[in-house]
Amino acid sequence: MLVITRKLDQSIIINGNVEVKVTGITKDGVRLGITAPREVEVHRREVFEAIAEANRAAVAQAPTAALSLQEAAALLRARAPKVRTVKKD
């Protein structure tokens, strides 16, 4: 694991096309902004794991009915509480 220290408004670049920027720091956590091409999927770990579990369950029920990552994400978004996205210029 690579560990990097960043301050407010500093960022890192991954693979030349994904930027992760520190947009806020509070006592409760760090707020990150991620800029990536549309074809790059970005998920919180718990969402990614839920998608993977939904796929495993779908495969177990019907081997030919596996959900794509996009379909599983859509199902989770439909069930999840709404999250407000703040765009910072």
General description of the model:
The protein has 89 residues and is an alpha+beta fold. The protein folds into two domains: 1-40, no CATH class; 43-79, no CATH class. The chain is built from two helices and three strands. Strands 1-2-3 form a three-stranded antiparallel β-sheet, with no helix packed on it. Helix 1 (45-61) crosses helix 2 (69-79). The mean pLDDT is 85.
Number of structurally distinct domains: 2
**H/E element sequence:** EEEHH
What structural category characterises the helix and strand content? alpha+beta
**Intertermini distance:** 31 Å
Determine the oligomeric state from the structure. single chain
User: Counting H and I runs of at least 4 residues, what is the number of helices?
Assistant: 2
The radius of gyration computed from the alpha-carbon positions, rounded to a whole number of angstroms, is 16 Å
Helicity range of the residues?
25-40%
Described by the principal axes of the CA atoms, the overall outline is elongated
Average of pLDDT: 85
Strand content: 15-25%
| Physical arrangement of strands within the biggest beta sheet | 1-2-3
